[in-house]
Recover the amino acids of this structure.
């Protein structure tokens, strides 16, 4: 296989609502990523989007974006893994370039959640027959995990709120983040509107619109493109029992563990070699559980890293350095591509006030549903 | 890149309605394909399904099928390209195995169209803003192409009916086909219910349930698995202007042409080296236009191959040898995997009464929407 690098990136600022259409956002960010890579053509476009079936009545977004971007005749496919779709598209592009069959691959994620009822559509990441039938949603299942976490480990009541505080702090200096004004303390999280006990509004990533894209190329050709190539050192995917409460221990995310282990093996790195983590903090409980399940903290101890300030930009293991899903925003199908852009900025020393010092290796994790599917990618300069 | 082979196949008989659930059909055919390949594990599962978002309220079918099939922890992603999704999943599995990163890849397609209103969901393969808003559906757009074809080329009125007659004839001896009883003449097609002028019922592939799966492995390991390995000699994808009537000549399918040319180039074969064609005959006009656009007939002349009997099993270029989408059935997300199974049976001399003599190379074409996306695969022994 060929080594693969990211040679171009582009992200549109996350917003509550864009007036531009889904296809226009997808095409705009595609062209911007091509410009960043310094290329005037690509060989294939792999698209990620989760909700257009319901919200835009579109089930063919890959060809739609390719057409709108003027990429005459290009290969275009859509890749999905529920809320981890962006990482799934990245993985397919990685496989395509690694195989030698595709040289320049575009990975574009776009989501326009403002056009309709996103939450019921998101819930279809769960089991319709056995979870939706019981009234479940992604919020309710995360609430259930959070309830179990507090009951089982009895951490202080503000334990998980620290993750939201960190995310909002980091988002303040990210021009592409949705929430750049707010500065919260843990009390603000606990006093925010109760969405579904024990989840408060400030435990949740927002409903929003956004698009991000990256261009991949063989590493040995990377210097021909872009100015800041970053290598993909590992790409892995794993699944778990589909329903969280069919698992022996719902607080241990086996797909996080498996995909992390595979990724560390492929990259020939250990957890503590990683300079910073872009985690899937769609809910604060998920940030905590992914930290624990990928080996960064013992079971029941993940929140301590946040409480002790170890996940801050200057901490031992910075997390969600540009605001994460919580505060940069979580336009679902685009989220992982925002994460890749942020990792590339960190590894090329362009993260501005959010720069992690001596950033050598960045790890990105993407969670589909309640970690039924998890993808892990590791990047390095 | 590594050469890739199909080492196991499985198909469930296409039916109007299965009582088994989507996940059960997907899991059953996955296990059956593993059995056929003689393997007790796989490294990755790439799933195709088009309509579960609407019909089953499921947006995470890859992990759902992996769980139901008992494939603990396996990589599982879903791949889409509207009505060409099965071929898109095949292509991704091909890329994964070719890259050297995945050894045993499952490609599973499953569709359960009986559970709701399939036709409006299928229409989302079109442009919601500019086609659905005008009342379009896949049927109406195929009807429009057919109307233009007759107006422009003025063939005899039964010109396209020959494709349906051929498909139904071939389906009679395919145990997995939906329609095994009927034997039609062109008059039956022209006298069947008018769906949307000029499309009659017997111009259309049926709404149905089905599941099919294939296992891919590196060709140099293929002899360790299964008994009838078949090589994938080419895999290609291309797009066109998204809306058929934005194209300079809507009767020429550029994505068919481009993906065919790429595939012939990769396989180092010419059109007339191919022993038989599994075309995407969702509508009789589509069978005709794909024949013309992939170089098997001049523009306006594709129907003559059917009228002259050249597409029959014993003809010059057999088409849809096991009944095609028209008569085997078109459970959309599964269709391309049925096609692969049929091609493998042909190339390994196991096609029974439908056997094409001296079958060396089989070509499969998959059409997404109105050929906005087209994939072409070529197989050989």
């Amino acid at each position: 296989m060929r080594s693969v690098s990211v040679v171009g990136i582009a992200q549109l600022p996350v917003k509550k609502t864009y007036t531009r259409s889904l296809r226009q956002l997808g095409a705009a960010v595609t062209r911007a990523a091509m410009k960043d890579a310094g290329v005037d053509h690509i060989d294939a476009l792999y698209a990620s989007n989760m909700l257009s079936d319901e919200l835009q009545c579109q089930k063919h977004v890959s060809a739609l974006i390719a057409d709108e971007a003027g990429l005459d005749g290009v290969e275009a496919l859509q890749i999905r893994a529920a809320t981890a779709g962006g990482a799934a598209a990245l993985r397919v592009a990685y496989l395509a370039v690694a195989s030698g069959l595709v040289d320049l691959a575009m990975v574009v994620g776009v989501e326009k959640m403002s056009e309709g009822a996103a939450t019921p559509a998101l819930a279809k990441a769960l089991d319709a027959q056995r979870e939706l039938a019981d009234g479940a949603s992604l919020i309710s299942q995360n609430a259930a995990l959070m309830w179990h976490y507090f009951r089982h480990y009895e951490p202080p009541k503000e334990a998980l709120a620290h993750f939201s505080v960190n995310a909002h702090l980091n988002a303040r200096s990210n021009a592409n983040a949705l929430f750049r004004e707010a500065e919260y303390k843990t009390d603000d999280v606990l006093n925010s509107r109760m969405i579904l006990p024990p989840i408060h509004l400030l435990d949740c990533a927002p409903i929003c619109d956004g698009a991000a894209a990256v261009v991949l190329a063989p590493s040995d050709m990377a210097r021909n493109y872009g100015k800041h190539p970053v290598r993909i050192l590992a790409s892995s995917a794993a699944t778990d029992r589909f329903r969280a409460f069919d698992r022996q221990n719902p607080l241990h995310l086996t797909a996080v563990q498996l995909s992390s282990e595979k990724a560390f093996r492929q990259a020939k790195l250990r957890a503590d070699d990683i300079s910073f983590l872009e985690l899937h903090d769609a809910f604060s409980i998920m940030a905590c559980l992914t930290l624990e399940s990928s080996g960064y903290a013992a079971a029941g101890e993940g929140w301590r890293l946040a409480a002790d300030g170890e996940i801050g930009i200057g901490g031992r293991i910075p997390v969600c350095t540009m605001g994460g899903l919580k505060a940069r925003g979580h336009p679902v199908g685009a989220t992982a591509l925002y994460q890749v852009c942020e990792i590339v900025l960190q590894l090329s020393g362009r993260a501005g006030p959010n720069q992690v010092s001596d950033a050598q290796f960045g790890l990105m994790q993407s969670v589909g549903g309640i970690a039924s599917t998890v993808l892990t990618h590791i990047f390095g300069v």
Remarks:
- Chain A has 13 helices and eleven strands.
- The two ends of chain A are 19 Å apart (CA to CA).
- Residues 22-37 of chain A form the longest helix (16 residues).
- Chain A touches chain B through 61 residues (CB under 8 Å).
